[in-house]
């Protein structure tokens, strides 16, 4: 009996550890993405400043700013899409784990419930009518 309880406790904690593992992986991926984005933006900013300093006319400045803004927008959009994909994939994995855990709980509940009701019925004391009889006798003597 004790072995079964230990086994059930271990199987019950398995989904939690899987979710924590997935969260750690996702946090690592997101940190890498953000680091890459920030590094890329810093490098682009340095290149933009160099290009801007070398411009001699207003048309050149405009073209440099336009190129920088478009590149920055593209990096941000790509990063947002990749982050969304990571989060969506993670959400699906966690949903599968949670649904699997609930199905395990239902299996356990279905297996334990019939045994629990048999045990409860066998151990339950028989109801006696003595307290009800005593209550009617005490009410008739006070009246």
UniProtKB/TrEMBL annotation:
<feature type="compositionally biased region" description="Low complexity">
    <location>
        <begin position="127"/>
        <end position="143"/>
    </location>
</feature>
<feature type="region of interest" description="Disordered">
    <location>
        <begin position="114"/>
        <end position="143"/>
    </location>
</feature>
<dbReference type="InterPro" id="IPR010127">
    <property type="entry name" value="Phasin_subfam-1"/>
</dbReference>
<dbReference type="InterPro" id="IPR018968">
    <property type="entry name" value="Phasin"/>
</dbReference>
<feature type="domain" description="Phasin">
    <location>
        <begin position="4"/>
        <end position="99"/>
    </location>
</feature>
<dbReference type="Pfam" id="PF09361">
    <property type="entry name" value="Phasin_2"/>
</dbReference>
<protein>
    <recommendedName>
        <fullName>Phasin domain-containing protein</fullName>
    </recommendedName>
</protein>
């Amino acid at each position: 009996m004790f072995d079964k309880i230990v086994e059930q406790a271990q199987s019950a904690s398995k989904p939690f550890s899987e979710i924590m593992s997935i969260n750690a992986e996702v946090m690592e991926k997101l940190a890498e993405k953000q680091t890459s984005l920030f590094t890329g933006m810093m490098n682009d900013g340095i290149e933009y400043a160099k290009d801007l300093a070398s411009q001699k006319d207003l048309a050149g400045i405009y073209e440099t700013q336009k190129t920088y803004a478009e590149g920055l927008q593209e990096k941000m959009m790509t990063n947002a899409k990749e982050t969304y994909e990571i989060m969506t994939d993670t959400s699906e994995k966690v949903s599968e784990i949670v649904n699997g855990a609930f199905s395990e709980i239902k299996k356990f509940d279905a297996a334990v419930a019939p045994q629990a009701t048999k045990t409860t019925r066998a151990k339950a004391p028989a109801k006696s009518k003595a307290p009800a009889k005593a209550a009617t006798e005490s009410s008739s003597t006070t009246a």
